[in-house]
Backbone:
């Protein structure tokens, strides 16, 4: 409130009403986005009877961890599915960054025959619906004996994440002045040294943006994990949520479902809060040349 009053006092009288309307509108939208998260967390701590009797109620007088304990008995247990999701997300982030950073640097700072055509072809793959190539992807994984394999799923996620990531990194490197590279070359630095010690620190917001998108997409992805994984011990958290929502005899366990949603949301929220500054800067740098 003190900051709001200070901003209002600093603006001319003609602009104060518009600024106040903007702040109020932003607060309303914030409430709409935050309330489902608050509702999910609040319901995850309800006793099972209270969650089943009134799933829409926001709070309950009783506090219980029973819903989280029941998740341990869903399939192989939520911790097994969470571990699989962590491995898949970490592998996707690592491979996406390792491939997209040098690729974006090459498209940004080097000139070679067919460069524009190759970049257009990479971007064109973003237009291919994922569902339309599920069968070819399954056959490819089968040939390499990677079906029902977490690493095979990582390769699928990296493949579909790379076009956007290469685009972001190319634009991020485009924003770095060429004078820095020329000065480093005069000092005798190799291309690998220039990329590692000069370009990467400057383009770090772009790398953080690429890593965050790769993590969120692989962490929340459902369809590929459902199709390419058949072993229950290799399922991910999104598949676990479907099993919980199906329930026994069609009865949904609302408390356990909200607990599973809370477990799935926590890493995403924490990662965004930690990297939001880099995320915004990287997204802006990647969108504007």
Residues:
């Amino acid at each position: 409130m003190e900051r709001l009053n200070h901003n209002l006092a600093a603006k001319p009288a003609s602009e104060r009403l518009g600024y106040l309307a903007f702040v109020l509108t932003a607060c309303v939208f914030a409430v709409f986005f935050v309330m489902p998260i608050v509702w999910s967390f609040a319901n995850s701590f309800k006793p099972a009877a209270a969650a089943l009797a009134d799933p829409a109620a926001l709070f309950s007088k009783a506090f219980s961890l029973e819903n989280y304990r029941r998740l341990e008995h869903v399939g192989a247990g939520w911790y097994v599915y969470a571990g699989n999701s962590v491995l898949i997300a970490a592998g996707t982030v690592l491979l996406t960054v390792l491939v997209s950073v040098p690729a974006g640097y090459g498209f940004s700072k080097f000139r070679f025959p067919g460069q524009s055509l190759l970049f257009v072809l990479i971007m064109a793959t973003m237009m291919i619906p994922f569902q339309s190539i599920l069968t070819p992807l399954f056959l490819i994984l089968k040939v390499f004996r990677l079906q029902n394999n977490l690493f095979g799923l990582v390769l699928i996620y990296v493949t579909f994440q790379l076009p956007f990531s290469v685009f972001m990194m190319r634009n991020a490197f485009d924003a770095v002045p060429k004078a820095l590279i020329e000065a480093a070359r005069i000092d005798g630095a190799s291309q690998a040294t220039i990329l590692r010690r000069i370009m990467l620190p400057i383009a770090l917001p772009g790398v953080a943006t690429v890593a965050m998108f790769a993590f969120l997409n692989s962490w929340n992805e459902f369809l590929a994990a459902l199709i390419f994984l058949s072993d229950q011990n290799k399922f991910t958290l999104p598949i676990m949520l479907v099993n919980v929502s199906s329930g026994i005899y069609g009865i949904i366990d609302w408390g356990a479902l909200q607990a599973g949603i809370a477990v799935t949301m926590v890493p995403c929220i924490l990662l965004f809060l930690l990297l939001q500054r880099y995320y915004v800067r990287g997204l802006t740098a990647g969108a504007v040349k």
Q: What stands out?
A: Residues 254-287 form the longest helix (34 residues).
